[in-house]
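Here is the promised in-class demo. Please do not try to memorize the tokens; focus on the logic of going from shape to residues.
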């Protein structure tokens, strides 16, 4: 029977395709995690607002 491909070449191609897919998947996961961290607001603890200086206080009515 005439083969259009060699079995060794097919295995090598599948191996290279698997390695390429694994590398791309690792890159994609790292990229999405980095993009999510960069777009998130900085995590800081909420602080109490500073008291208003006396000259800026509104008069009581």
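The designed amino acids, position by position:
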């Amino acid at each position: 029977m005439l083969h259009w491909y060699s079995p060794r070449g097919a295995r090598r191609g599948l191996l290279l395709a698997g390695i390429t897919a694994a590398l791309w998947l690792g890159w994609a996961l790292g990229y999405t995690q980095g993009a999510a961290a960069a777009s998130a607001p900085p995590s800081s603890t909420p602080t109490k607002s500073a008291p208003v200086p006396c000259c800026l206080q509104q008069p009581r009515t």
